[in-house]
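User: Design a sequence. Structure:
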């Protein structure tokens, strides 16, 4: 979803799911403080990017994780691979089929979020990124 927000706080506050969006943003910052955080706005989507991919370029989408407000949910976009597949594929059994895309996890209800599973996913993303850096 595109937004005219000029700050991360404004993006969160104007989201239809602001409580969930704020909860996820705070959780990422607290659990993974090593990941940089920035507002990213393109012509079609505005989101928060966390961390930078090993091959950091000027591409605005170059984030390990991205958190984006949508009309019906908050989407968590997840970079990286595990066992030759997108990392999220390794965890799809923990989520309803409608909640999981190829690299996108659609979150709606904070009471149903298993933060232990989310932590394992983000840990895998960081490990994948570190492996990519080391192989250069």
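Assistant: Done.
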């Amino acid at each position: 979803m595109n937004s005219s927000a000029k700050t991360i706080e404004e993006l969160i506050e104007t989201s239809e799911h602001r409580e969930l969006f704020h909860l996820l943003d705070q959780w990422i910052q607290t659990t993974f403080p090593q990941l940089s955080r920035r507002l990213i706005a393109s012509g079609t989507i505005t989101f928060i990017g966390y961390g930078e991919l090993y091959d950091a370029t000027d591409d605005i989408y170059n984030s390990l994780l991205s958190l984006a407000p949508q009309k019906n949910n908050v989407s968590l976009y997840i970079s990286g691979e595990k066992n030759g597949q997108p990392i999220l594929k390794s965890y799809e059994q923990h989520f309803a089929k409608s909640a999981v895309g190829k690299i996108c996890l659609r979150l709606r209800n904070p009471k149903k979020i298993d933060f232990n599973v989310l932590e394992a996913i983000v840990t895998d993303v960081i490990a994948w990124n570190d492996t990519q850096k080391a192989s250069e």
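Residues 115-134 form the longest helix (20 residues). The CA atoms of residues 118 and 136 lie 28 Å apart.
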